[in-house]
Amino acid sequence: MPDLGKYAGAVLSAYAVSLALLAVLVLWSLWRAKRVKAALEKVEARRNGQD
Amino acid sequence: MASIWEYANPRKFMSVTDRVLPWIAGLSAIALVAGLAWGFFLTPDDYRQGSTVKIIYLHVPAALMAINGWLMMLAASLVWLVRRHHVSALAARAAAPVGAVMTVIALLTGAIWGQPMWGTWWAWDPRLTSFLILFLFYLGYIALWAAIEDGDTAADLTSVLCLVGSVFALLSRYAVNFWNQGLHQGASLSLDKEENVADVFYFPLLLCIAGFVLFFLALVLLRTRTEIRARRMRALMARERMA
Amino acid sequence: MKALLVRDLKLAVRAGGGFGLGLAFFLIVVVLVPFAVGPETALLTRIAPGILWIGALLACLLSLDRILALDREDGSLDLIATAPLPLEAAVSVKALAHWLTTGLPLVIAAPVLGVLLNLRGEGYGWLVVSLAIGTPALSVIGTFGAALTVGIKRGGLLLSLLVLPLYVPVLIFGAEVARRGAEGLSVATPLALLGAVTCGTIALLPFASAAVLRVNLR
Fold first, then answer.
1. For residue C11, what are the domain limits?
2. Cα separation of B98 and B227, whole Å?
């Protein structure tokens, strides 16, 4: 851990906030991708069942 | 059986991105981790800014991607309006939230840096102000997409909004420049970013920028794939209702 | 073209057309500001040009969804779209009608309300000039927003979100003219830029408005 001096709070909070935001964005995108993929597969399966 | 994807183009897009996406995601992770770790652990403090100089590794790439994200949306909107490729419109839609988050990161890290350096979280500096306006444009664009049910109509309307918005965003940038010069003579708050950065900071910064670019690309591809699937699903369900 | 303009004006002036609502809103905003910031005359004098511009801008915003939504409800929008008159011209006429019923009254009322805010004597002329040049742009931009959201139920809030960022350049230059005018400074630069923005929007934006309107009507 480098010595951040008196600005440690500022630097660490900047990193924490940014990385948290990026993580939320990634997780949200992945979650939505998974959900939509599953829903589409269900619809496709239903369709193939009918044919 | 009819083709799985209603349009040949999305189908090809899906197969290509299926292969490429893991590589881009992996590369972006490597570049991001390496760049940020290099910047955070291995670079010295600036003699004036102290350790807050480390915020640059997040702030500059995020700001860069906030603007480039909008430019990408503009290009994708134009392609949609001219060539009517659905993937293009959906990619623009997928990029908007990513760009908006980048804008927020740039604003927040800027505020956190500004507090100890300028003694204030926020100043109506032209650069800061135009970023706030850019964020408003992102919000309006996302809201318009969300408000319209029909996919093609939404794509058309948001594309035109993106074009008109780009012109006005540019106009606002210059208006804001003008407006603040009227208030503060010789902006003492302006920060020379690229020009002043010494080599020790420059190379990790380049790596971080590369990481952010790849990160943006990977996320947009992932989200575009989601949008394509969602569109395909809507089309199938509409057909089911018709039958 | 003329018939459309006359029709829009008549509809606006008739009871329930919303004519005067914008004016009343403008008045209320200006009355509320001293309650919020305190009655100190020097402060009010300083912020008067900005308050008057914000008030006019919001009053303009208030009536935007009427430009096209009512026509869409009773079907006359489809008639306008299929008429021989190009849609670009029809949209411009609509914007002009909006300006005549909303913008122009605001321009005329602004000096009266300036008295309430203790606007400095030199400022009245430039305030009226800046509003007279700036409000047409507000109407044209607003028509674009209205065309974008005409197909959306309860699109009023979305309309504001879309239009307000587009108002930024007009507001900056317009308020700058009014402020510099009140302080006795030279207004040439912001006035020229405000004029340029207004001319540009009037010339180009109707094409975008007509394009999105066609999309919404198909």
1. 2-217
2. 14
Q: Are C215 and B143 inside 8 Å of each other by CB?
A: no
Token duo for residue B225: 């794939």
Q: Please tell me if residue A51 touches chain B, with a CB cutoff of 8 Å.
A: yes
Segment 35-54 of chain B within 8 Å of chain C by CB: none
pTM of the model: 0.88
- Tokens standing for residue C145: 């927003």
With beta carbons under 8 A apart, name residues in chain B contacting C169.
168, 171-172, 175
Write out chain B residues lying below 8 Å of C173, CB-based: 175, 178
Q: Touching C: which chains, 3+ CB pairs < 8 A?
A: B
- Interchain contact B165–C (C-beta under 8 A): yes
Confirm whether A11 is domain-assigned.
no
Assign 3-class secondary structure to C20-86.
CHHHHHHHHHHHHHHHHHCCCHHHHHHHHHHHHHHHHHHHHHHCCCHHHHHHHHCCHHHHHHHCCCC
Note whether A15 contacts B: Cβ–Cβ < 8 A.
Answer: yes
Assess if residue A9 is contained within a domain.
Answer: no
* Min distance B126 CA to chain C CA atoms (Å): 12
Contact flag A47-B240 (C-beta cutoff 8 Å): yes
ipTM for the predicted complex comes to 0.87
Closest CA to B84 of B141, B17, B159: B159
CA separation, residue B16 to residues A38, B19, B139, C72, C191 (Å)? 20, 5, 31, 44, 53
Domain count, chain C: 1
> For residue A45, what are the domain limits?
25-51
From first to last of its 243 residues, what are the pLDDT tens digits of chain B? 344 344 447 888 888 888 889 999 999 999 999 999 888 888 777 766 777 778 888 888 998 899 999 999 999 999 888 888 888 899 999 999 999 999 999 999 988 888 887 777 887 877 888 889 999 999 999 999 999 888 888 999 999 999 999 999 988 888 888 777 644 434 333 445 445 556 677 788 889 999 999 999 999 999 999 999 998 888 888 888 887
How many domains would you assign to chain A? 1
**Residue A43 falls within a domain, yes or no?**
yes
Q: Name the closest residue on chain B to residue C216, using Cα atoms.
A: B153
C195 touches chain B (CB under 8 A): no
A45 falls within a domain = yes
Task: For chain C, say whether B136 makes contact (Cβ under 8 Å).
Answer: yes
What tens digit of pLDDT does each residue of C153-178 get? 777 889 999 999 999 999 999 998 99
Residue B95: alpha-carbon gap to chain centroid: 7
